Amino acid sequence: MVQIQFFGLLRMLLKQERIELRAVAGETVAQLLARAQQQLPCPFLHRLVDDAGGMHAGTIILVNRQNVHHLDGLQTPVRDADVLAIFPPGAGG
User: Fold this and answer.
1) What is the C-alpha R_g of the chain?
2) Which of 3, 51, 64, 83 sits between 20 and 30 A of 26, alpha carbons compared?
3) Structural domains in the chain, sorted by start
4) Is the pTM above the cut of 0.90?
5) What's the rounded Cα separation, in Å, for the pair 82 and 25?
6) Quick one: which of 88, 82, 87 has its CA closest to 28?
7) In this structure, what is the dihedral angle of CA atoms 22, 24, 28, 30, given to the nearest 10 degrees?
């Protein structure tokens, strides 16, 4: 299983802290998030990823505490027992 933890406004929007999904061999962060989108009643992916498939500025996605910006971005492979932490862009000033 892969655990996805939600933080910030995303947690409030989805009304849950985390979900667990079955691991799929060869799956990437982008594919896992698309699959999570199908499992949840409220759309959230548009808050993290733009129409071109890139992450919005300020989005932080960690895989086992490592920022995907320092790995392979949304193409980072996901494996069984991985933990993803998703932080949507913040607001304020």
Assistant:
1) 12
2) 51
3) 2-87 (3.10.20.30)
4) yes
5) 12
6) 82
7) -50
Tokens of 19: 């979900």
- How far apart CA 5 and CA 2 sit, in angstroms, is 10
- Could you read off the pLDDT of 15-32 as tens digits, one per residue? 999 999 999 999 999 999
What is the rounded CA–CA span in Å between residue 21 and residue 81? 10
Residues 36 and 19: their CA atoms lie apart, in Å, by 8
CA nearest 63: which of 37, 88, 86?
A: 86
Render pLDDT for 31-82 as a digit per residue (tens, 0 to 9): 999 999 999 999 999 999 999 989 999 999 999 999 999 999 999 999 999 9
Q: Return all residues near 12 (Cβ < 8 A) that are at least 6 apart.
A: none
